[in-house]
Amino acid sequence: MIISLDAMGGDHAPAVTVHGAVWAARDFGLTVQLVGNPDAIAAELKKHDTTGLDVPIVPASEIIEMDDHPSQAVKTKKDASMNVAVRQVKTGKSQAFVTAGNSGGALAAALFGLGRIRGIKRPALSTIFPTQSEYGFAFMLDVGANTDVKPEYLVQFGMMGSLYAEKVLGIANPRVGIVSTGEEEGKGSMLVIEAATKMKTAPYNFIGNVEGKDITTGLADVIVTDGFTGNVIIKFAEGLSKMLMSAIESEIRARPLAMVGGLLAKPAFRGVKAKLDYREFGGGALLGVDGVTIITHGRSDAYTIRNAIRAARDAVEKDILGAIKAGLT
Questions:
Q1: Which CATH code for domain 126-280?
Q2: What is the pTM of this model?
Q3: Are 47 and 26 in contact, with CB atoms under 8 Å apart?
Q4: Which of 165, 199, 211, 240 has its CA 20 to 30 A from that of 32?
Q5: 120 to each of 12, 160, 173, 326, how far by Cα in Å?
Q6: What CATH topology corresponds to 1-120+288-329?
Q7: Per-residue pLDDT tens digits for 54-111
């Protein structure tokens, strides 16, 4: 399998992207194409033992910066690392595209370069969300690709999310819920009410509305919402988890007796922190475009990049594109 990595994307590229690529190539036996400035990438590769690994450099002379206007940059910077990586997938020279770069640019590059799967109205950006379910997580979409949606988009998000949860994440007959202001049928905005009505007859296990307080309980395996709401949810949750962990640590340090208990509970705290750590999941799949695309945090470290490449591998191996195409028939 060949994965194309935007080696210039992210706050700490190309150091962490090259490191993550080497790590993934070694652990997963993949070919990871490093797309970007050849000299900068080669300099980073020299810092690692690449004996027996396949990490070729694919030249790209431009970069879509974090402060660039996404669609404009994608259109004008034809030789940007994102665009070149996408073209590798489009032309069959690789099977997936991974980036930690400008997320809007990644959305535009994938949409313009790969196109939508025939029949999909809008692509959706997804994420793994920690919960108290037996699996330990739910699959949420959309989390930023579409701030304004129509009911039929949400119905398709449910279909794509259900297939990804089943095929890639291994969740049997995943329960699909839609974010609303109340659990009762008929609660929520007109958008949610109409979408929920349509989702009742969709070919997946729709369980109805899910309130914000129930997302983390594991009530649903797939959480469907619009990109505006989903983005607010994940960023609020990320900020809240950091605040709580910091507050607990501060309170323990302020109490001598609690310090003793804190030392004993340190392994438990590490376990909780790992469960809430986005780095473990790597990145989110952009579902609905005609090519496997994984987008991860701009502040990603090498471990995150490694796991984002793993996520791309899993999506290719489980043929998520074929499953979505079949789900439309």
A1: 3.40.718.10
A2: 0.89
A3: no
A4: 165
A5: 34, 10, 22, 12
A6: Isopropylmalate Dehydrogenase (3.40.718)
A7: 999 999 999 998 888 988 999 999 999 999 999 999 999 999 999 999 989 999 999 9
